[in-house]
Design goal:
Elements (H helix, E strand, L loop, with lengths): L2 H7 L3 H7 L8 E8 L4 E6 L6 E7 L22 E3 L13 H11 L5 H12 L12 E6 L8 E7 L25 E5 L4 H5 L3 H6 L8 H16 L5 E11 L1 H11 L9 E5 L20 H11 L7 H6 L2 H6 L5 H4 L13 H7 L7 E4 L11
Parallel strand pairs: 2-4, 6-7, 6-8, 8-9, 9-10
Antiparallel strand pairs: 1-2, 2-3, 3-5, 5-7
Helix pairs in contact: 2-4, 3-4
Length: 374
C-alpha cells in the first residue's frame, strides 16, 4: 500500500471506515483447482476476475521439535485436495507488530490528533493473525492457470528488521503486479531468535558445523519450492525476480551474497535497505556487532539453562523464549558470517565481487523516514 494512498485515506473520517473493508470477499473457486507435485490444491477468487490466490502453501516441513534451529526440511505432500483459502501462521514475533507498524507510519505524517486516533482504531479492529513456530508457508497470486506461456515470477520478501513481519500482511495483498502478467509469491521465513540465533551446541550437531542464518535458509528453501513448483501455477521458473523492502531488501543482498542461493533467482530489487553494513560473526565480535554465540548463550541463560544441550534448548517453550529475550537481542539476530551460508559478510562479498551477480535495481521508497521520525 503506497504511503501517499494512506495519506489520502486519512483526509476524511468516511474514508477511514473503508479501510476495514479493503479486502474483498474471497471464495474457494473451482477454476483454481489444480494438480501439483505436492498434491491437488484449490485456491480462492480475488477482486479481479481470472486472478486467484493460493494461500498457506507449505514450502518446507514445520520447523518444530528437532527441526527448531535446523535447516528447513522437505516440504510435505498430501492426498486429496488442499484448500488454499487461509494464510499460514506468522512466524514467532512480538504480537501486534502490524498495528505497531501502522502506528509509526501514521504518527510520522504530522496529522491531527483526531485523525491519528481514528486510523489507529481502524487498524486495531483488524483480527490478529495466529503466530507459531509452524510458519514456513508461502502464497501465490496468479492469473495464468490456463496459459501456455509461463509468466515471470516475482518473490516478495517482507521487511520487519528480521524480527517481525509476514507475507500475509494486508498491504501486500494486491493484484497490481499480477494484472501486469506476473506470478506473485509472498513468503514467510523464521525471525528473531528462531531465525537467526547461533549457539555452540547447535553448531556441534549441524552437519556443516554452523548455526544461525535459519531465516536465510528458509528463503532459499522457498526459492527451491518456486523452482520445482511454480510452473503449475503459471510461472516461469527460469525468470524469477526476488524483491523486498527494508529487511526484505537486506535479504535480497544476503541472498546475493550466499553461494547456497546461486542460480535460484535471476534478477533482484532492493527497496530501502541493504545488509552490507552488518558485520556480525558466529563466534567473536564483529566491529561492534554482537557475537552470535554470545547472544545464543545469553538467551539460554535467560530461560534458566547453563551449558545446555541442543535438545534442552529445543525443549524450551517458544513463548518463554519470546518473553525472556535479552536486551538488544535484535542486534544479534541477523545474518552472521559462518563460513557456510555466508563465507563472507554481505558487505565484504559485494566489495570483493563474491556474489550471485544478477541485474539489480536498488533505491529508497518515498516517505519511509516517517517510520522513524515524528
Amino acid at each position: 500500500m503506497r504511503i501517499s494512498f494512506i495519506r489520502t485515506l486519512l483526509v476524511t473520517p468516511v474514508a477511514l471506515s473503508l479501510v476495514a473493508c479493503n479486502n474483498p470477499t474471497e471464495e474457494i473457486s473451482d477454476a483454481a483447482l489444480i494438480k501439483t507435485k505436492q498434491g491437488s490444491v484449490q485456491g480462492v477468487t480475488t477482486d479481479t476476475a481470472g486472478i486467484y490466490n493460493f494461500k498457506g502453501l507449505p514450502f518446507a516441513a514445520a520447523p518444530t521439535g528437532e527441526l527448531r534451529w535446523a535447516a528447513p526440511a522437505s516440504a510435505p505432500t498430501w492426498t486429496g485436495v488442499k484448500r488454499a483459502d487461509t494464510f499460514g501462521d506468522r512466524c514467532m514475533q512480538v504480537a501486534d507488530t502490524e498495528g505497531g507498524f501502522f502506528d509509526r507510519l501514521i504518527e510520522g505524517h504530522g496529522l491531527t490528533a483526531i485523525k491519528n486516533i481514528l486510523i489507529k482504531r481502524v487498524v486495531a479492529a483488524q483480527e490478529s493473525a495466529p503466530i507459531s513456530e509452524d510458519c514456513l508457508y508461502l502464497n501465490v497470486r496468479t492469473g495464468n492457470l490456463t496459459g501456455e506461456t509461463k509468466q515471470p515470477v516475482m518473490v516478495w520478501i517482507h521487511g520487519g528488521g528480521h524480527q517481525f513481519g509476514s507475507g500475509d500482511f494486508a498491504y501486500y495483498q494486491n493484484n497490481g503486479l499480477v494484472e501486469k502478467d506476473v506470478v506473485l509469491v509472498t513468503i514467510n521465513y523464521r525471525l528473531g531468535a528462531f531465525g537467526y540465533m547461533a549457539h555452540p551446541e547447535l553448531s556441534a550437531e549441524d552437519p556443516n558445523g554452523v548455526s544461525g542464518n535459519y531465516g536465510t535458509l528458509d528463503q532459499i528453501a522457498a526459492l527451491d519450492w518456486v523452482r520445482d513448483n511454480i510452473a503449475e501455477y503459471g510461472g516461469d521458473a527460469n525468470n524469477v525476480t526476488i524483491f523486498g523492502e527494508s529487511a526484505g531488501a537486506w535479504s535480497v543482498t544476503e541472498l546475493m551474497a550466499s553461494p547456497l542461493a546461486a542460480g535460484k533467482f535471476h534478477k533482484a530489487i532492493a527497496q530501502s535497505g541493504a545488509s552490507t553494513y552488518h558485520l556480525g560473526q558466529m563466534d567473536g565480535e564483529g566491529l561492534g556487532w554482537p557475537s552470535g554465540y554470545d547472544m545464543g548463550k545469553q538467551v539460554a541463560n535467560a530461560v534458566g539453562l547453563t551449558n545446555p544441550t541442543a535438545a534442552e534448548l529445543r525443549a524450551v517453550l517458544a513463548d518463554e523464549i519470546m518473553a525472556k529475550l535479552p536486551e538488544k537481542a535484535d542486534d544479534a539476530f541477523h545474518h552472521i558470517r559462518d563460513g557456510y551460508v555466508f563465507p563472507k559478510n554481505v558487505g565484504h562479498a559485494f566489495r570483493d565481487g563474491s556474489i550471485n551477480s544478477v541485474p539489480l535495481m536498488t533505491g529508497y521508497n518515498s516517505d519511509e523516514g516517517t517510520l522513524f521520525f515524528s
